[in-house]
Amino acid sequence: MEVEFRVVESNGNIHWHSVNATPEPQPDGTVIWYGIFQDITESKEYEKVLEQILFDISHVIRRPASSILGILALMEAEQQSGSAHSMHLELLRKATLELDEYIHQLNDAYHHRRSRNTLKRA
Question: pTM (2 decimals)?
Answer without folding.
Answer: 0.50
